[in-house]
Amino acid sequence: MQENPSVQASTVTAHADKVPVPQKLAYGLGTFHDMWGHWLYPNIGFQVFNIFLGVAPWLIGVALFANRVFDAIADPLFGWLSDNTRTRWGRRRPYILIAGVIGGLCFPLLVAVGPGWGTTTIFGREISNYFWFMIGSSALFLPIMSAFKVPYDCMGAEMTPDYNERTSVWSFRNGVQKFAELGLFFGAQFMTMAVWVGATNENVWARIKQLLTSATAWKAAPEGTLPNILLGAQVYCTVLGVLMAIASVVMFFTIRERYYGNLASKQDKVKLIDTLGMTLKCRPFRMQLLMKMPYAMGTSMVGALGYYDTVYYVCRGNLGEGAVWNFRMGIAGMVFGFLGIPVFSYIARRLGKRHGVMAVLIAALFVFAATWWLYNPDIKWLQIFATGLIAFTGAGFWMLDGAIGGDVIDYDELETGKRREGAFTACGSWIMKVGMALGAGASGVILSVTGFDAALGGGQTEHTLFMIRFLLAVVPIAGILLALVMIYFFPLTPEKMAEIRQQLEVRRGKV
């Protein structure tokens, strides 16, 4: 396609293209499932299964790799199914309701274990039975999350045809996501509070009552005590699961599928083979994948190291103090993430999404380099800026990546004549999750390479602490540099998208 120089991009969104604020906010509620259903488990997996239950870090890494693979297998299926679904409620909303409610109610089952499960001997090696539980529970739960997440992500490209309004939709989504991310950080503190010291299944209801009636129950566990992290995780996941189910119901009754009635409901159904093969023929889509995969892999490979850096380097092995700081850092992440959204949204509106992403990545290079100095046992509050600034850039990156997705699908519609949001979402998700599975799996290996030994507590070697700090900075920087190269050559500028929209509306009318 040749660019038409007479078509000019506009920074003003037509009234008909704007999405009502209640719909944007409701769409953001789906991040509860994304953050908690997908990412809480990797966050608390090491605390519950390594620190409390004693599972080897490399086994947890393998389990996290496996659960991303299960996730990736299910994504193409539900992308294909949702593209081909025809109901009075649309293509996506039925999945958001049914899978969202079921997923929320099943969420606590991921930590439905008890002490003393023992081991199984395989080829002369003792393998913890908790490892097999992690594999099995993920294989059952994550396809439910895929049934929700793929149709949910599709909605982000279907709510408006406007280049800049898509950035606004994803700004609201990422703004709500900051509250969900707070749930990730608070989990560590919740599971190590004083109320869980001496807690058992027999007295759990009494402990829950303490949480509702006593402020002291929310304090960190005293130094030298070991709270029942497992029981705390079970209660926490139950509360979050209920919120996930409620969010699904609200979304179903609030958001609308703009492209369904006049366009998608009338098009031919998409073949399953198109979900992966045909989408990869789209050049802007390939470039988008090659941009975000190294960023995501680089950050996921060291995802657990930030927690270990706080607890074992800054706080010298004090789990309670580390959890308190982790929560404070979560607050900082929420605040700085909120600040990042309007900053990078403004840059994208003024200069285009491509330049907005470039600004994000350049800022992220400096942030990860600075973590070497921001995690400091002598000035503990500096680590708040480490997490805050990572969240500042991360919010901008994922907001703009999501907004770019709708532009890629418009490009594909002009080429193929079909709206295939499910195919693109599923294909992108499949490739990303395989990559992130490798990253998550490598996280356990990386932790083992550092020489970390949970039995040593705060007595980790200087070499271990050095490697944790070094890898936390270097691995993400390598990924960011690769992402920067890819986005530099990305072709969908504001002018190009204005031309594409004009051609689409001449062909099939407005939506």
Automatic annotation (TrEMBL):
Example of a GO biological process term: carbohydrate transport
Sections of the chain in a coiled coil: none
GO molecular function ontology, one term from the record: symporter activity
Lineage, top ranks: Bacteria, Pseudomonadati, Verrucomicrobiota, Opitutia, Opitutales
Highest taxon of source: Bacteria
Similarity-based family: Belongs to the sodium:galactoside symporter (TC 2.A.2) family.
Cellular localization per UniProt: Cell membrane
Chief subcellular location: membrane
UniProt source species: Opitutus terrae (strain DSM 11246 / JCM 15787 / PB90-1)
Topology with respect to the bilayer: Multi-pass membrane protein
Membrane-spanning parts: 44-66, 95-118, 130-148, 179-199, 233-255, 289-308, 328-348, 355-375, 381-401, 422-446, 466-490
Protein name: Sugar (Glycoside-Pentoside-Hexuronide) transporter
